[in-house]
Amino acid sequence: MDDTLFEFLHSEVVNYVVEGNNILNKDNKDEDLSNLEYIGFSVGYKIIERLTREMARFKDELDMMKFVCTDFWSAIYKKQIDNLRTNHQGVYVLQDNGFKFLTKMSNGKQYLELAPRYVAFTCGIIRGSLANLGVNCLVTAEVQNMPACKFHIQVQRT
Amino acid sequence: MAVCAAIIGKDNSPKYFTCLNPDEELGFQYKVLSSLDVIEEKLNSGNKSVSDTRELYLGMLYSLEKHKIYGYVSNTKIKFIIVIDSTNTSLRDNEIRSMFRKLHSIYADNVCNPFYIPDEPITSKSFDKSVKHIISGI
Amino acid sequence: MRSSVSYILSTTTSEPNMSHPDYEQFSHDHAALLILVKQIGSCLKTKTFNKFYERISKVNTVKITDSTGQVRNILIRYIKEHPVENNDWGDFQTHRRLLGLISLGRYDSQQELNEICRVHESLKVKYTSTLFDSRCILFGVNDEREYPSDNSSPEEESSSSSKLSVDEPVSEPKESDSKPRDKFTTPTNFKARAIFYNEADPCTDLENQLNEFINSLFWVLESKRLERSREKIERVSLLLAPFEKKDFVGLDMDSRNNKKRCNGRMTKHLGDLYLQAGLLSESLGYYHSAVETLKSVNDWLWLGAAYEGLCAASALVWYPNIQRNVSLHRNASLPEGSPKRSNSISTPMENTKRDIINMLPPDEISKRYREAIIHYSKYQNAGIIETEASFKAARISVEQNHSLQAASFLQNVVFINLTLSEQEKIQRFETLSDLYMEIGFIRKAAFCQRLAATRHVSPQNPTPNWNKCYSLILQSFPGHKISLDPTEMSTIHSPCGWPSLQIQLLQELVVASKRMGHSALATRHMTFLLQTMWQHLSSSEQKEFAIQLQSLSSQCEGAPVPLVLDTGIVIPPANLSNVPICSGFNLRSLQPHLQPRKIETFKRDLGPFLFTPIKFGTLERSSSKPQSKMDFLWVENDVCEVTLKLVNPLPFELKVSNMRLLTSGVVFESIPETVVLPSDTPTSLTLNGTPKESGELEIQGYSTHTLGVKSNCRLRCMPNFLPCYSIEVIPVLPTMEIKTSLPQSATFSSFQNFENVVTSASISLYNGESTECTITLTNNSHVPIEMLEVSIQSVLELSLQDQIFKWSQENLESQLPLMPNGTASLTLYLYSAANFLAAGYGPNELSSGVFGSSHGSSLMSMSAGPSSLPSRLNSPIYSAMGSSFHGTRRNELNSSFRSSNSGQSSMTTTGYRSPGALILPQHAASTVVEGQLQLRYSGGAGLRAGYCRSSSIFITLEMLPSLQVTNWDVLPAETSSQFYLVLDIANMTSQEMELYYTPTKHMLIEGHESCRVPVPVNRCPLSKLTKLYMDQNSGMNNRLDLDKICSDHIANLVDLRWQLLSLNTRGKATLKGITLTPNMLDIVRMSPLNWEVSVNGDFLKPQEEINCDAGDCLSVRISICNSLEKPLQHLILSIQFYQDHRNGTHNYRLETRVVIIGCAKKILPVLEPQSKAWHACNVLFLTPGQYKMDIQCSTSDALSTNQPILGPCGHSWRYIPAVDVNVHI
């Protein structure tokens, strides 16, 4: 039950942000989803404190990524990431074959254009969680075939 | 039964500080501040040699004539410090550990308080009350 | 770490224990020979001594080949002080024994030399129990050559002065080579080896001498070692630590246990000796077996020592390169958190190391140390040994990069309960802090520094030292994240430090600097505290500190300059920008009338490119950038303003004095301001200053002087402000004072941009009246005014504006340049120009003849006016004006319609117009014209830079109606060269008006009444019209042109003057813009044809009537002359009679009454200029009556078309007036 509520809430947040944008600038082609991403960032930043509470200290970055793929993803989306790949140089690709926010839409290309709206929040969550764990990164999402989604994490080394 | 507890942020600045006797607060602050060196060293060496201890609880950081200082660092690099009166020998390690767990737990709850901005000093009164509750061991 | 069974094994005792801990010990020192280097006498400068000490210290290892040919590596440790009690522990650890003594002294005389020798000898006596050998290095005077070497006299002297024990044989100084060059010799009882040098000598053989000395020490040691090792181990006596002596009294020394104890202790002792003698592996062996033996008899103290020996020997193998910092001053360039030592151990060496039996692997070293310390801790009297062991262990851990381990050893130090002097406690903390620093524990180091600092001034300390306290607190700052530079404190975005601790430390620092007597520092640090910790202070603390600062600064004012301490530390300035808080900082433009303006040059044609892409680029950039560059200008030597909004956050009144602007760039003279700020109330303050040069000026902030502290508050250091504001200062411009001779206006209205108005003038004039206004211009600057331009601005039409306002630019320019303090005057001629024709009345009213409705109509025309400003729309006065002036033009356009009405009908036909019926609209009585006389002036460098100033005078001119021409018509005059202009003139004033309508004629009109006057006017000569006649091709416009020319002609000739008798004002009215109908035009202008009509041979005069009887035959001859300058073609000259019934109908059907004999018409194909043509015929009137003879000449097509007649073609001219013929019976 609370899953559905979360999904409804999320889609309403998406609508709210998108409509807010439409009022501000109608003719802007690239949708400004940074608000949505920031909401995700704040949520991620806070929720990670709770989710890692009982965890042992992470050995390294990869350890953190594994945590994101498993426990973290399960806590939020009730499933795990299907595939994690890395080049061991700070790039991680997390693949979810049935990303929750996309499964309720059509399979295929019908709403492909609108997909970014439904992944921005999650990108923010990932970025926020990792930021609080001390990893600064860029998170982008790639949707080629709904409802599969790939999240690219690019760690920023300073 | 602890005499002092502190929560220190990622940047090593104090976020929350309390002790049983407010008159001693400044003295405790000096002690807690200098214990950060040990924490940092422990976290650093944690990767190299002592990697088996991946516990968030760091154990005793150092002991003073009258006090023992214990540390705990969350995955998000929030440091929790508890100062125990060294004459209090009845306190076991496990009890201290569970004290830290409780502290961490209420901290995680406090982070979810919409009025709390992460990395700002904690001013919530109910949080203060809970911490005092925990350290007084009731 | 410490044993929980502390002190159980040692009784509390007042025995002298080793009271001087040596915190500087390294484990390597176990292997070193201890040599005391002593400065003797006051002649040797400490600096020289230190130089030599350092040089000597470098000789810290010596390789000596022993009797078996083995090379021994001998370590030496030099010290400057050695309490003799420390020798007591020499049996326990042999490296504590002082083996050698080197004294250094300088002498100028034999006496001094003797004294040095005496002291040296006494030192020898002091350490006699352990000392092996000594050297005395003596520095003599520089130029020995002045004194011929003389050996005898010092010999005598020395013998005479010898007071020391004489039972020793006199030893000759062995340095034979140095002797000849010195006339002084050591006393005979001086038995140490003396080494003579000149102070300036390079002392090249010093190292050799040291080597030799160390060799000598070694051999003594070696002999002792051999001696000890040959001793039968069973027979050795028990070695004791100093405090143990009591414990063993009365014990059975022969017990097995005790034997073992003796044995173990001696084995350990041998280990020490072997170690010192450079026999590492052997020593390890001894230590190892000692450990075994001592462990079995529970001899904890010595077991600890054996462990320590084991560690020391092992460490010497593992880390041969550990070195103490020879120079003890800290290397400031090292980054915080200390560089961890690198263990430079090469692999081959490592292999050899492994081969040594009994050697401890690196991680064992710390463990053994730990054990040793635990064992030591069981003895209260071994506290110092324990402390030293802890330090040694910590140093090994540092070398091993085990920070935590090092920290735990250091932590142990604090627990050791020692009765130490304050000085020693301080040293302990300082050493701790150094070591903590080395392992990167900067907070811990800072903690220890602070403790050391407090010890320096603790009540227990007999010699409080505030200087040291101060410098230690200062050193602890990095660990507490305090930077002495306030800007760095504020730029750290996240507050990393612990504010409450920082506040306390800073307070302590203030106290320390105050107690040091350095009040400038105290003020500085208090300022810093208040400034950087402001947001962490409660308001009561803020108040308290502010008051403290005030009292501190009363001792020494704070100034924004760096303070340099004796130690070379620079304390950067601290500026109070929180007291008062500045919440607004705005540069003000000059007052509008002083603002410089660019003198416009005529815009050059820049070609077809109106916009370039670059301009677009700059536009975008400027829009995104915050505005730090002002878009207005300041002028050199002008007082410029910056407004600040200040808030005093303190709960008491704050006086801020000497507030100035801080600038860079061009020279700027800032005027200091003093302000008293009430608590917590925002106050605005204006800071003034004068730029003294032209160019770019940067305003960087402001300076204050409050609470006794001078501060430079720079905007870049303050949040919410741009780093600085820049403004362009242009070269100096003159200023001008302006006065007018007219009274000031009560109110300004309507104009939007009257910001640069400096004065105003107002006057009321009746329409047609004119006056003068004298404007006095005074140059009140130091720059001559070289340029002065006058222009008027109003909403009026340009032509009208030029009528109302007039001045002479030439006159003005002749007064330039206007030198400083010079005065010029400008006369402004004001004329109340108005349309005197009844222009306000629309054509409708005229046609209907109802004048009364004109009131409403003018109100209606409001909206038709060209007003653009809403305010003007709301002003009925103005709209009346506007509509009336613009109505003029409209009336002209409609004139054909209107004129036909007034012209065609004679005045009698237009109906009855009694003067009394003239109702004048009262509200339109006066109109107000507002104008700004703009004076643009410049001079000096500013002019050359292309700038000027602009001031305006606001002029309000109330125009009162005087007279109005309500209607007009033209009538032929008695002479053909003139006509009568008949005017209905209304006196719009309430005064009696004298009207002069010709030079000779005048009449009186009562207020609000009108009258009709005929004005004789010369007809418009053809010369004015030639152009029209010449231009054949022009169409309809010609009529308008003709109209205009004639109208102007009338306006020029008619001179209506009026005088209000009671007010003695006079003026004139113009008929400019009067409109005429075509028929009127014919009367107004001269005919192009000159007529000559003769009847019966007599020329007919104008207006002459012909009288004849019915039946008479009149012979009429008409001759015409073309007075134009072009030929007229196809003219038809005709004669016609008609009867005027005086009711508007003319009867042309007169066939029964008049007979024309001959042709009534004649066609003239062409009439050349100035040529004449004539026609004659006879007329016979059949019946009596009144007839009119109408003679006309028309061009051919004129008759067929009934159009208004234009120009020469298609026009007909009449002989005016028609000739009356009275036919009598």
UniProtKB/TrEMBL annotation, chain A:
Belongs to the TRAPP small subunits family. BET3 subfamily. One of its GO terms (biological process) is nervous system development. Its main location: endoplasmic reticulum. This is Trafficking protein particle complex subunit 6B. Keywords: Endoplasmic reticulum, Golgi apparatus, Neurogenesis. It is found in: Endoplasmic reticulum; Golgi apparatus, cis-Golgi network. Component of a transport protein particle (TRAPP) complex that may function in specific stages of inter-organelle traffic. Specifically involved in the early development of neural circuitry, likely by controlling the frequency and amplitude of intracellular calcium transients implicated in the regulation of neuron differentiation and survival. The keyword Endoplasmic reticulum applies. It comes from the Eukaryota. PANTHER family: GEO08327P1 (PTHR12817:SF0), TRAFFICKING PROTEIN PARTICLE COMPLEX SUBUNIT 6B (PTHR12817). GO terms for cellular component: cis-Golgi network; endoplasmic reticulum; trans-Golgi network; TRAPP complex.
UniProtKB/TrEMBL annotation, chain B:
Belongs to the TRAPP small subunits family. Sedlin subfamily. One of its GO terms (cellular component) is endoplasmic reticulum. It comes from the Eukaryota. Signal peptide: none annotated. One of its GO terms (biological process) is endoplasmic reticulum to Golgi vesicle-mediated transport. It is found in: Cytoplasm, Perinuclear region; Endoplasmic reticulum; Golgi apparatus, cis-Golgi network; Golgi apparatus. CDD domains: TRAPPC2L (cd14854). Its main location: cytoplasm. InterPro entries: Longin-like_dom_sf, Sedlin, TRAPPC, TRAPPC2L. This is Trafficking protein particle complex subunit. Part of the multisubunit transport protein particle (TRAPP) complex. Keywords: Endoplasmic reticulum, ER-Golgi transport, Golgi apparatus, Transport.
Automatic annotation (TrEMBL), chain C:
Residues 598-702 form the Trs120/TRAPPC9 first Ig-like domain. It holds the Pfam family Ig_TRAPPC9-Trs120_4th. Keywords: Golgi apparatus. The keyword Ribosomal protein does not apply. Its main location: Golgi. GO terms for cellular component: trans-Golgi network. Residues 420-553 form the Trs120/TRAPPC9 TPR region domain. Residues 171-184 have a biased composition (Basic and acidic residues). Residues 1-20, 146-186 are annotated as: Disordered. It is found in: Golgi apparatus. Residues 1090-1193 form the Trs120/TRAPPC9 fourth Ig-like domain. Residues 193-326 form the Trs120/TRAPPC9 N-terminal domain. The keyword Transit peptide does not apply. Residues 159-168 have a biased composition (Low complexity). Residues 1-17 have a biased composition (Polar residues). Belongs to the NIBP family. This is Protein brunelleschi. It comes from Aquatica leii.
